[in-house]
Specification:
Length: 170
């Protein structure tokens, strides 16, 4: 839940531990409230699935109501926009690894480092201006996404050597 990640990194560090505990208890309560099967290999009944979806929808609305400013703006970004932010942070050397669209502790650290590098106060969230600066600063390197072309690496740019398996019908 995107709103959950945004609240988890709320500006007030004293609220973070309480939020994490509250979130853990809420997740545990879903098992009983929605009568979830004890074993994961057992299919979830339709009523349980509907209960979980309803619970998450309600919880997301409560989270959104608690968010403000840049945290709320981030929670409302599309998955593609969050992915592109991480790609820019990777391209500029602030983030290692593969972008996944989720802004956990490693992405938060990269955001703080990027903000410091451009002379802005370190924060957990990017303002609209900082997002624009990040986008303009990152080199535009064409990347073929792995899920678009099976067998190609995410780092394979158009024109690079391609695996023969793609062209051998394998």
């Amino acid at each position: 839940m995107l709103h959950s990640w945004a609240l988890r990194f709320s500006p007030d560090p004293s609220e973070r531990e309480a939020f994490s505990s509250e979130e853990t208890e809420w997740l545990k309560s879903l098992e009983q409230r929605c009568a979830l099967p004890a074993r994961t290999e057992v299919p979830m009944p339709p009523q349980a699935r509907a209960c979980v979806l309803d619970a998450y929808t309600t919880r997301a609305a409560k989270y959104a109501a608690r968010l403000k400013g840049d945290a709320l703006a981030e929670a409302n970004l599309s998955p593609q926009e969050r992915f592109e932010i991480q790609e820019s942070l990777v391209a500029l050397g602030f983030l290692d690894g593969e972008p996944d669209g989720e802004f956990g502790p490693i992405t938060r650290r990269a955001i703080r480092s990027f903000l410091a590098s451009i002379g802005m106060p370190e924060a957990e969230f990017l303002s609209a201006d900082a997002r624009q600066t990040l986008s303009r600063s990152a080199p535009k390197i064409p990347v073929v996404r792995q899920n678009s072309f099976p067998g190609l690496s995410r780092q394979s740019a158009p024109g690079s050597q391609r695996p023969a398996a793609l062209f051998d019908g394998q």
